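in:
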């Protein structure tokens, strides 16, 4: 079993729909997005000092890049670096990027869903983007991609198609970015549906359960090993960070919140007795890390 501390609100943080937390050790800040507001945040979790950038559209995710960051703007992926802003890849306008993670090997994996809710069922896909911007379809028939993560050895990729209420796994090859043989890893019983996730250094999968105030951790067989309850109506995603990667940061939403849940929409920090995996950068292979 994993041990967790009491959730503490990160000062000054607030969002309608916080998402995509990722620790950036280069600046010792947590990067995250306010999705529908289209705001990129870089927050000092100790002081609450924040640097934010507003983008022209829905911002589904942010991820670290070898130089700067990459993030979504609707159906586009944009790279912000020391030399400026450029488009990396794009998809059809009726699709929208939602969640993303950088894999072992420096590949960017991202999910797309249909913006038309009436046509959303299995209309999305999971894609892989290389450092050169080449985009490849990994899996189709997906409704709403959320959590992604990799085993500590890097040979298994975990993925959530939210409406299915389960975690899937793929065989993964970091050298080629190949993710194959999708199959169920484990189902998740109980209230809520799986949203964003983080995989720790021991291979445990930590999942924010949308529709609940709870983050749950599972071993690879699907046995629950930890649970965190927050003072909000909806949690959205989580990521390990801090100087030793032992703090779990949890993003939340104001949706469904009662007047008593004044901290809904904030980012929370939770001390744990485990560690996250080292941050990965789009465009940087393991040999370059």
């Amino acid at each position: 079993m994993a041990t967790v501390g009491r959730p503490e609100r990160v000062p000054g943080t607030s969002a309608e729909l916080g998402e995509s937390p990722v620790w950036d050790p280069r600046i010792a800040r947590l990067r995250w997005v306010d999705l529908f507001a289209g705001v990129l945040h870089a927050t000092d979790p100790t002081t609450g000092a924040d640097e934010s950038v507003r983008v022209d559209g829905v911002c589904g995710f942010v991820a670290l890049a070898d130089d700067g960051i990459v993030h979504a703007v609707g159906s586009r992926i944009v790279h912000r670096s020391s030399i400026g802003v450029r488009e990396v890849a794009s998809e059809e306008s009726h699709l929208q990027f939602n969640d993303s993670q950088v894999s072992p090997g420096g590949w960017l994996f991202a999910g797309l869903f249909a913006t038309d809710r009436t046509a959303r069922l299995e209309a999305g896909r999971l894609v892989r983007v290389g450092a050169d911007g080449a985009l490849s379809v990994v899996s189709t028939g997906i409704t709403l991609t959320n959590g992604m993560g990799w085993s500590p050895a890097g040979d298994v990729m975990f993925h959530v198609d939210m409406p299915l209420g389960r975690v899937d796994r793929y065989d993964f090859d970091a050298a080629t970015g190949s993710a194959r043989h999708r199959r169920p890893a484990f189902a998740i019983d109980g209230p809520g549906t799986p949203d964003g996730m983080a995989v720790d250094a021991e291979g445990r999968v930590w999942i924010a359960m949308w529709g609940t105030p709870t983050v749950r951790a599972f071993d690879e067989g699907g046995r629950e090993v930890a649970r965190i309850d927050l003072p909000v109506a909806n949690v959205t995603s989580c990521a390990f960070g801090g100087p030793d990667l032992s703090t779990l940061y949890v993003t939340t939403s104001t949706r469904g919140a009662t007047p008593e849940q004044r901290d809904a929409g904030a980012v929370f920090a939770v001390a744990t007795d485990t560690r996250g995996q080292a941050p990965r950068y789009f465009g940087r292979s393991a040999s370059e890390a």
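note: The two ends are 31 Å apart (CA to CA).
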